[in-house]
């Protein structure tokens, strides 16, 4: 082993140790490892920042934006409410999520399948009162094992088919992977449904800030618009849309107060006084197609080209708003500001929203042009709360985000464009069509995750450029010659699993597949089972967040630490190995 190879192993080993220790944030560790690798000479100066232009960084960043656009549209909430209104058990929710992602991943790119279902996971987490981390890691692992079932399910399957073509003159076909892959997928899904408790319940930093300022007793007003799907349905049906996060405290019909009984039938132009959290209020308003705050909407502001947003603010002592109501101030007509909701500590507000006399200490949700809100808050003595996304009263495009995502995945499925181009174009479309406001685009992209990936790529590649992979291959060749057939097959599978976190999974196949074929030939065996073992090992990185973009994609939203992945991933890897070896030897006989 040369000095450069020794240094590559030492740098990567030290980096992994710091990741597992968890004392420093992962992007800081990755950047430090990159600088150390440059300092000792295993990463050339002119290649130190190659990772920032790598396809994986583009794919992950774009997928985060696309997923945020799908979540923002509200179509996921509407679909769950319509088709799965009563699913509240954590295990039942997990089963639906993991099975769906696993099946989708067999036919579309697994990161696309995962991006579709991440918003559903957040909705289920909110409904069942658990953190999204319970769902996201099992979903990511499900997307990996789902990709094992077909040739197009994951990159290692495609690459190993090409390697077999080069070695034997015959490629694997679309469903040659299905017998073993489907067996592993079924076993893996069952394991995840029972072992999900190994996943620690983490909360991302962004979610923690939101929880600290969460206000759940806002009073808002909405009108049942003509054409609303809740016309003729009971009040309890409407409330159910909010998943218990909001209630109707008053109904005004043709100027008269009507008792808000659960069984009263809603009519067009009914005015509803709602109380609850912003998210629940938004779900009710958007899914029931209600008009928020009377006939006021941001559309008149949007026509001017101004960006509209909603903010939460506290009315300060001595504010000109004290003792005044929105009607008396003519808030919308005079200031182009819309009052969406009011919260008053220790008191339930039962008046119409426009007639509430505001007090110092009231928390209000105000909507207006982004450039006008700061001056209004300053002039009227209002103190903005810590910024969080308030969707109440915003106009969303329901089906367009899904069409954008479908176009991206369809174009990659038929080979029209590469995955990075397709997902980058989809993310750009989310901005161009104003599915995501410009101010929220970079908030959707998890910067530390992308920096970590970009820094790790040249560090990991140093294992290949210094010849470290050749050392591994030589060691495997020495060990495998003394093993029985099942042992040699197991060794190849474990080696592919071990190497994948440091090379991307396609590169792992390119390095390991010729080694596996040489083993088979030297031992007098057919190469198919060994090539399949390489594909399975390269496609099953459950031990780190860096070996596959699906694992990376859920790290930020799930609030996971580096050391969380082996807690579920190590036993799942053992299950995959135990099931794979006999299945491979049965489906692909060695002789």
From TrEMBL:
Classification via Pfam families: CitMHS (PF03600), TrkA_C (PF02080)
Record's GO cellular component terms: plasma membrane
Domain RCK C-terminal: residue ranges: 207-290, 297-382
Subcellular location as annotated: Membrane
Membrane topology: Multi-pass membrane protein
MF-aspect GO terms: monoatomic cation transmembrane transporter activity
Keywords noted in UniProt: Membrane, Repeat, Transmembrane, Transmembrane helix, Transport
Entry's transmembrane regions: 7-24, 30-49, 56-75, 95-122, 134-154, 174-196, 402-435, 471-496, 502-523, 568-588
PANTHER family documented for this protein: BASIC AMINO ACID ANTIPORTER YFCC-RELATED
Protein name: SLC13 family permease
């Amino acid at each position: 082993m040369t000095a450069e190879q020794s240094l590559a192993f030492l740098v990567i080993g030290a980096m992994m140790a710091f990741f597992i220790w968890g004392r420093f944030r992962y992007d800081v560790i990755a950047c430090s490892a990159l600088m150390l690798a440059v300092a000792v000479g295993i990463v050339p100066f002119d290649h130190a920042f190659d990772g920032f232009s790598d396809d994986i960084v583009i794919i992950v960043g774009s997928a985060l934006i696309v997923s945020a656009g799908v979540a923002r549209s509200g179509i996921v909430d509407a679909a769950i409410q319509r088709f799965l209104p009563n699913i509240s058990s954590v295990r039942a929710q997990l089963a639906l999520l993991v099975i769906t992602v696993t099946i989708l991943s067999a036919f579309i790119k697994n990161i696309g399948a995962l991006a579709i279902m991440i918003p559903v996971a957040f909705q289920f987490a909110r409904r069942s009162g658990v953190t999204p981390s319970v769902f996201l890691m099992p979903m990511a692992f499900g997307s990996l094992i789902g990709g094992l079932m077909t040739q197009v399910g994951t990159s290692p399957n495609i690459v190993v088919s090409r390697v077999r073509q080069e070695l034997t003159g015959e490629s694997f076909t679309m469903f040659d992977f299905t017998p073993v892959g489907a067996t592993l997928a079924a076993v893996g899904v069952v394991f995840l449904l029972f072992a999900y408790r190994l996943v620690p319940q983490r909360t991302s930093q962004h979610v923690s800030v939101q929880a600290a300022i969460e206000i759940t007793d806002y009073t808002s007003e909405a009108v049942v618009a003509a054409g609303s799907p809740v016309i003729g349905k009971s009040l309890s049906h409407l409330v159910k849309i909010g998943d218990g996060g909001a209630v109707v405290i008053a109904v005004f019909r043709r100027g008269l107060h009507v008792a808000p009984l659960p069984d009263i039938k809603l009519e067009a132009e009914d005015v509803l006084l709602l109380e609850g959290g912003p998210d629940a209020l938004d779900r009710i308003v958007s899914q029931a197609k209600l008009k928020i705050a009377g006939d006021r909407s941001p559309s008149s502001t949007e026509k001017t080209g101004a960006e509209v947003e909603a903010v939460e603010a506290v009315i300060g002592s001595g504010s000109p708003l004290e003792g005044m109501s929105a009607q008396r101030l003519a808030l919308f007509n005079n200031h182009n500001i819309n009052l969406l909701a009011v919260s008053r500590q220790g008191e339930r507000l039962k008046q119409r929203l426009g007639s509430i006399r505001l007090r110092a200490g009231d928390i209000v949700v105000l909507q207006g042009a982004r450039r006008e809100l700061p001056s209004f808050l300053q002039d009227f003595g209002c103190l903005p709360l810590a910024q969080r996304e308030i969707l109440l009263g915003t106009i969303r495009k329901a089906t367009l985000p899904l069409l954008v995502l479908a176009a991206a995945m369809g174009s990659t499925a038929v080979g029209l464009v590469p995955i990075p181009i397709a997902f980058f174009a989809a993310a750009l479309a989310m901005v161009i069509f104003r599915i995501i406001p410009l101010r929220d685009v970079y908030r959707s992209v998890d910067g530390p995750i992308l920096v970590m990936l970009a820094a790790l790529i040249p560090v990991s590649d140093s294992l290949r450029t210094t010849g470290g992979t050749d050392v591994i291959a030589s060691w495997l060749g020495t060990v495998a010659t003394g093993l029985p057939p099942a042992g040699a097959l197991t060794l190849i599978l474990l080696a592919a699993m071990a190497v994948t976190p440091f090379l991307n999974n396609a590169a792992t196949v390119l390095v390991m597949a010729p080694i596996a074929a040489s083993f088979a030939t030297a031992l007098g065996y057919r190469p198919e089972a060994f090539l399949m073992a390489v594909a399975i090992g390269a496609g099953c990185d459950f031990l780190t967040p860096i070996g596959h973009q699906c694992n990376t994609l859920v790290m930020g939203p799930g609030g996971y630490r580096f050391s969380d992945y082996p807690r579920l991933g190590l036993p799942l890897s053992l299950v995959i190995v135990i099931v794979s070896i006999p299945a491979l030897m049965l489906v692909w006989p060695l002789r």
